[in-house]
Design a protein that fits this description.
Elements: E1 5-6, E2 13-14, E3 18-25, E4 33-40, E5 44-48, E6 51-56, E7 59-64, E8 72-79, E9 86-92, E10 107-114, E11 117-124, E12 134-140, E13 146-153, E14 160-164, E15 179-187, E16 190-199, E17 204-206, E18 212-214, E19 217-218, E20 221-226, H1 232-237, E21 242-245, H2 252-261, E22 264-268, H3 272-277, E23 282-291, E24 295-306, E25 310-313, E26 316-319
Parallel strand pairs: 20-21, 21-22
Antiparallel strand pairs: 1-9, 2-3, 3-8, 4-7, 4-9, 5-6, 5-8, 10-11, 11-14, 12-13, 12-15, 15-16, 17-18, 18-19, 20-26, 22-23, 23-24, 25-26
């Protein structure tokens, strides 16, 4: 299970009615999902700190300890049978980062790049936090070197800024470098929960001749219109460097894969079919980038192109020269 931690226990000791062992539970684990993974060779009763838990027949299974665990030393006792069962004492931290659609954690990140400096505004939605909990944010480059890090109170509502002066830019299919953002919920100096996402610093724009610019440099686009689910790796291998999603709301997994491969993602605004056909001689496009904890985020930049500038031919399109 995710982030499971096995607690160390001492040796089993024989009692008049069965067996017992003691184990320590650090305060940091209180309130989490604690349980026993056991395998009994014969019917067995389980007690924790003198309180009856349950009875089990032969075989493997799980027993919850969440309502009975206490900080410090705990005593687990078994009754019945000639030998103690094979037991693992485990704790599974709750997911403290709230989860949105498509099982994506709520670590929001918006990026901006100006000459010489990249700024990431980061915000996390946390649950089940305690007074004194902190949120540590770590920004790493593609080689794993730490560019910036900050630790704030876990109940902070305002975004946190991470800044890098390293010119690590997402350069499309030629070099899709992405930064790694790690968010840790810490309690009493220990990591309680951790998630991470990857995002690339970039800028999109058009010059006076309506050429597409990536990070201020001409970047001619040859794109594929997505009609049905299709392998983006195959699209990349066919020589495309952009895709046009017709749904109007690209799926998070598509954004993540496209970002990793260096593909620029477009979507139409408004009536998709009418605009896609360019029958009115005009198409409005918006960019999508992989942000908001894996959720699609619409870029503030929108393109309004004449049909002559957007060369649409069947399932292909080109922008720029």
């Amino acid at each position: 299970m995710r982030n499971s931690t096995q607690l160390e226990n001492t040796d089993w000791q024989r009692t008049e009615e069965g067996w017992q062992t003691e184990f320590a539970c650090p305060v940091v684990y209180l309130g989490d999902l604690s349980w026993i993974a056991c395998d009994c060779s014969e019917p067995t009763e389980f007690f924790l700190n003198g309180e009856y838990l349950c009875s089990r027949d032969r075989g493997a299974g799980h027993i919850s300890l969440s309502e009975h665990l206490r900080p410090g030393r705990n005593c687990l006792e078994t009754r019945g049978g000639s030998g103690h069962p094979d037991i693992s004492l485990l704790v599974t931290p709750r997911s403290h980062f709230r989860v949105h659609e498509e099982d994506r954690p709520s670590l929001g990140c918006s990026c901006s790049w100006v000459p010489g400096s990249g700024i990431l505004k980061v915000q996390a939605q946390l649950a089940d936090i305690l007074p004194g909990d902190t949120l540590r944010l770590i920004l790493r480059d593609p080689e794993g070197e730490i560019l910036d890090q900050v630790e704030v109170n876990a109940d902070r509502l305002d975004p946190v800024d991470l800044v890098t002066t390293r010119n690590v830019l997402w350069e499309g299919t030629t070099q899709p470098d992405r930064l790694e953002l790690v968010a840790q919920l810490r309690r009493r100096g220990m990591v309680k929960d951790e998630i991470r996402l990857f995002t690339g610093l970039r800028t999109y724009s058009l010059d006076s001749r309506r050429n597409f610019l990536l990070n201020g440099h001409p970047y001619p686009l040859k794109g594929k219109v997505l009609e049905e689910p299709e392998s983006l790796e195959d699209i990349l291998a066919q020589g495309y460097n952009a895709v046009w999603d017709r749904s109007g709301q690209p799926a998070a997994r598509l954004l993540e894969e496209a970002d990793r491969l260096g593909l620029v993602v477009f979507s139409t605004i408004g009536d998709h079919d009418r605009q896609l056909s360019a029958a009115q001689g005009h198409v409005s496009l918006c960019f999508w980038v992989q942000e908001e904890g894996g959720l699609p985020s619409r870029d503030v930049t929108r393109l309004s192109l004449e049909a002559a500038e957007l060369n649409l031919c069947g399932q292909e399109f080109t922008i720029g020269h």
